[in-house]
Amino acid sequence: MIDPAAAPDVTEEQADEYGLRLVLMRPVTAAGIGAIQLHLRRTIFGEIRFSLCGIDRRAILVHIEVEKKHRRRGAGRVLVAAAAARAPRYDWTTLPIGQDPMTVAF
Predict the structure, then answer these.
(1) In this structure, which long-range contacts are made by residues 97-103, counting pairs with CB atoms below 8 Å and at least 24 apart in sequence?
(2) Confidence class of residue 28 from pLDDT cuts 50, 70 and 90?
(3) Long-range Cβ contact pairs of 16-23 (< 8 A, separation 24 or more)
(4) Is residue 61 within 8 Å of residue 97, measured between CB atoms?
(5) d(CA 33, CA 36)
């Protein structure tokens, strides 16, 4: 699939029409919520949102979603790995997961 550690920063404007891409959506403010989207051509089928605080080296995974028809193929793991690669040596945590069985299983 994609090696998230080696993927260069690609913005939405730079995403091409062909292939599978990880696209970085930078936060508007420092320590704001940014995102990494998984594009197939021009279709977004997965996204992870997270916040990084460089002062205390903490990262919060806010949300992760993959379209139903693309689940169980490793897209979620690639998104998590891509976010973790952006913040090596950070302490990661998540917001409360909720009760969705698919989310809890992931």
Answers:
(1) 102/71
(2) confident
(3) 17/41, 17/42, 22/78, 22/79, 22/82
(4) no
(5) 10
What is the rounded average pLDDT for all residues in the chain? 80
CA atoms of 59 and 103, how far apart (whole Å): 19
Q: Other C-beta atoms within 10 Å of 79: how many? A: 26
Q: What is the pTM of this model?
A: 0.76
> Residue 12: is its pLDDT beyond 90?
no
Residue 42 has pLDDT above 60, yes or no: yes
Sheet (strand 20-25) strand order = 20-25, 33-40, 43-53, 58-66, 91-94
